[in-house]
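Lay summary. Proteins are chains of building blocks that fold into shapes, and those shapes determine what they do. In this project we predict the shape from the chain. Here is one chain we studied, written as its sequence of building blocks.
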Amino acid sequence: MRVAADLDVKDKRVLVRCDLNVPIEDGKVGDDGRIRASVPLLKDLADRGAKVIVLAHLGRPKGEPDPEYSLAPVGKRLEELLGIEVRMAQDVVGESAREAVRATEPDPVVLLENVRFDPRETSKDDGERAEFADELAGFADFYVDDAFGAVHRKHASVYDVAERLPHAAGPLVAAEVEVLKRLTEEPARPYLVVLGGSKVSDKLKVIEALLPKVDKLLVGGGMCFTFLAAQGHDVGSSLLEKDQLDTCKAFLDTGKIVLPVDVVAAEKFDADAAHDVVDAEQIPSDRMGLDIGPKSVELFAEALAGAGTVFWNGPMGVFEMAPYAEGTRGVAEAVAALSSGDAKSGDGGALTVVGGGDSAAAVRALGIDEARFTHISTGGGASLEYLEGKALPGLTILED
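And here is the predicted shape, written in a compact code that computers can read:
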């Protein structure tokens, strides 16, 4: 796979697909982790004399312009982080975009508006996507994909444009592939996976794919209650997927699943609700579990001790609410503590990978130093699909 550093970009226009899909709160960027992750590539290309045209999406607009999903706040934050002017186009391939691309001097970085404002971006019709990709490709000499969070989508700005231009992987995509290969090709033992999040059904395929490969699989978050129910325990009003009970029983039969032994149970889904730590096997009928408890954190930390490889995806509770954040914090600290030594080169520490999405957001929200982990993924869904063994269109075309 060719990488961006291999390209001679001086005096060339480079179309860069970034993952800038960040939360917008009151017209301003909330968690800017993905924007900060994109900065090194954009700065490097600009420093090497390229005219950089950035493509990105935000949210799920319905194939037409929608002020709620404008990339304008992202452009402002990107400009602050880059320290150079970012010219914001008012459309994707219209007159504003064409003018912005033509006027890249003295503005070395242009941000086109949300690519999902054009319905052809996500169209199932190959011809419609091809038409849109032709227009995008007409802006540039090279294409670089640095949006790992989108490589599992066969979208025009991810797949079809790469067919039309000399292309390369950005450093984020290249790093993700390298780390994910280490997770799937002879990982250092013991190999442990920590999964959280709301539903078993959301993680069903990845559990099926990982169970034969891991030594232990630790389950927290809302999904743990379906496992507890599968063991015959009352889970009160906690999240429960009754249609997954038999599946969970089969997973439990492998002997590799580790479940919480206590949980923080509240009267309702509210930060101010009355709550207590209760035995995971004795959740009151009028309470719902919203976090794993302190004994479970200790149990998980003991299971993780001595691991050679750890993949963590999904929070242990509703970390956005302070009373239910300590389980996620405890597990994050236990995983981070394994990365002693020069873990990034595989020397002296475990390979610790945070699987993007809510897990990465939790690390930042809880104030845990990201450098304490070997790798924090920029693409939760894409990471999971890679681990499931699926072919990801955005990677397939880059490897061609």
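What the prediction tells us: Residues 33-47 form the longest helix (15 residues).
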